[in-house]
Design a protein that fits this description.
Blueprint (H helix, E strand, L loop, with lengths): L6 H6 L4 E4 L8 E4 L3 E5 L5 H6 L4 E2 L4 H16 L1 E4 L1 H5 L3 H12 L5
Antiparallel strand pairs: 1-5, 2-3, 3-4
Length: 108
């Protein structure tokens, strides 16, 4: 919920967000231009990098990147896009819950 508190700002900036339907997807992957993949256990925050000593792998190999990209495309088949208008219509209870969770995000 704390992460979702930033969705509106991201959507307004043009970021495309997809919600995974089968449940929680804990994969943390990025692919760039079919040549770089980024994967690992860390969230992209100071807590993961400094306190939890989590690590990531950055293979600069096309075959590895292609494999990660194929898996990402498989995940997208089980997602629905989150639009700005749908997000703004999510209801006041969800909005307040996400804002409260955002306050505790440094501890989460």
């Amino acid at each position: 919920m704390a992460g979702q508190a930033y969705f509106e700002e991201l959507l307004e900036a043009g970021v495309r967000i997809y919600a995974y339907q089968p449940g929680l997807l804990h994969a943390k992957t990025i692919t760039v231009d079919d040549s770089i993949a980024f994967m690992g256990s860390s969230n992209f925050d100071i807590r993961s990098f400094s306190l939890n000593f989590e690590i990531n792998l950055l293979p600069y190999v096309r075959d590895a990147t292609r494999s990660v990209l194929e898996r990402q495309m498989e995940y997208l088949q089980d997602c629905h896009p989150v639009t700005l208008s749908d997000w703004q219509d999510r209801g006041s209870f969800k909005c307040v819950s996400q804002d409260v969770a955002k306050l505790f995000s440094p501890l989460l």
